[in-house]
């Protein structure tokens, strides 16, 4: 079983982004779970145990990131930190309004990604 403090859930409908983030984080020693939208993330979060951090795209088909984050904050997983990843110019404001702990503007610089993960992931 993966240690909670090293497990990151990456939620993004773009396969290239998911796989790039996965590769970068796994290369840095993290355990990575991925989800294609909020519905998939919700299911994985509830069936696969705890995660230390969620990296969340906002604009996705199915359940978008905003809806997922609202559900998350009203669940037993409400203390899991979330970093929003989005290409929208209002990402910082939207992330704050939704109660995310941080944000990254796409295209994400890999150094910024790792810095956010180190900052917000437990341990």
What is the N-to-C succession of helices and strands?
A: EHEHEHEHEH
The tally of helices reads 5
Strands, total number: 5
The radius of gyration computed from the alpha-carbon positions, rounded to a whole number of angstroms, is 13 Å
Query: Which spans of ≥5 residues are poorly predicted at pLDDT below 50?
Result: none
Mean pLDDT: 91
- What is the percent of helical residues? 40-55%
CATH architecture: 3-Layer(aba) Sandwich
CA distance, first residue to last residue: 17 Å
Give the spatial strand order of the biggest sheet: 2-1-3-4-5
Number of domains: 1
Task: Report the CATH C-level class.
Answer: Alpha Beta
What does this entry look like structurally?
The chain has 123 residues and is of the alpha/beta class. It has one domain: Response regulator (Rossmann fold, 3-Layer(aba) Sandwich). The protein is 41% helix and 20% strand. It has helices spanning 15-27, 38-47, 65-73, 91-98, 110-120; strands spanning 7-11, 31-35, 53-57, 82-86, 102-105. Strands 2-1-3-4-5 form a 5-stranded parallel beta sheet, with helices on both faces. Helix 2 runs parallel beside helix 3. The longest helix has 13 residues, at 15-27. The chain is globular. The mean pLDDT is 91.
